[in-house]
Q: What sequence folds into this?
């Protein structure tokens, strides 16, 4: 099998390239390989779409640090500030 | 007293504790540990307050300290698990694909049923995603998180977590295969 034929039938390699593409630029050869594979493989097209969506969602999940609904309880905060004042007074 | 006038530790808890806590909890999902980290960050910040030059905001500076502490947590959690993970890799390979690289039919990715935009804001789907993330092996989650959430350089991740470049790519690939499969299994 030639290299093109090989990728055409290799979903494992195609999904790897899909992941790689989310992180860094593919080589020209990899781009062509993936393009050819996706053109003929609807299953990997679904994977591709979902993989990108997952990344968007996970990113969104981690940006909840700006979500004001997450709070420390007041007593913990009080103790913590107390601890900081103690440290400050040591100096 | 602190030499620098740039920092105001008297206001740290009021201004940043909730933010830092939320930042930690979204990344390590452990309330007690997240609380400890917030405290450690403030104490560490006091110790090195003289090194603060005011080039970044107080919040950015404190967040950077927290970020390093979270990487320490990832590192501690994942150390010693490398051999176990390699075994799981082989198993995963066999699970998802035939030897010739074709998907096994039972693992074919199928549409989640609702279009992507709806799912992004779907609360239940987000909860499923969180559960599936927690099912990943610790080292995989650490690699995945540092890459896709923190945008760390690949070399940094490899150095910090002591994984080879080849293993990094294996983990990135496997983590997504497993995460996506878990979503499909749980959601559909």
A:
């Amino acid at each position: 099998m030639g290299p093109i034929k090989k990728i055409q039938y290799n979903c494992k390699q195609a999904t790897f390239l899909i992941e790689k593409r989310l992180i860094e630029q593919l080589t020209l050869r990899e781009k062509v390989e993936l393009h050819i594979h996706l053109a003929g493989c609807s299953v990997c097209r679904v994977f591709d779409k979902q993989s990108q969506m997952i990344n968007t969602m996970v990113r969104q999940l981690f940006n909840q640090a700006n979500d004001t609904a997450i709070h420390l309880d007041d007593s913990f905060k009080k103790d913590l500030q107390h601890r900081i004042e103690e440290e400050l007074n040591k100096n | 007293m602190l030499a620098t006038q740039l920092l105001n530790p008297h206001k740290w808890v009021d201004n940043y504790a909730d933010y830092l806590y939320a930042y930690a909890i979204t990344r390590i999902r452990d309330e007690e540990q997240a609380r400890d980290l917030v405290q450690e960050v403030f104490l560490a910040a006091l110790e090195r307050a003289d090194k603060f030059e005011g080039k970044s905001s107080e919040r950015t500076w404190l967040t950077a300290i927290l970020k390093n502490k979270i990487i320490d947590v990832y590192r501690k959690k994942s150390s010693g698990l490398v051999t176990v993970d390699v075994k799981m890799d082989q198993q995963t390979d066999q699970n998802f694909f035939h030897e010739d690289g074709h998907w096994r039919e039972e693992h074919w990715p199928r549409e989640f049923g609702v279009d992507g935009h709806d799912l992004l804001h779907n609360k239940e789907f987000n909860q499923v995603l969180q559960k599936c993330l927690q099912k990943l092996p610790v080292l995989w989650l650490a690699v995945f998180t540092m890459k896709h959430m923190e945008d760390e350089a690949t070399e940094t991740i490899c150095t910090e977590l002591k994984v080879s470049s080849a293993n990094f790519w294996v983990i990135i690939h496997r983590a997504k295969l497993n995460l996506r499969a878990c979503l499909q299994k749980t959601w559909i």
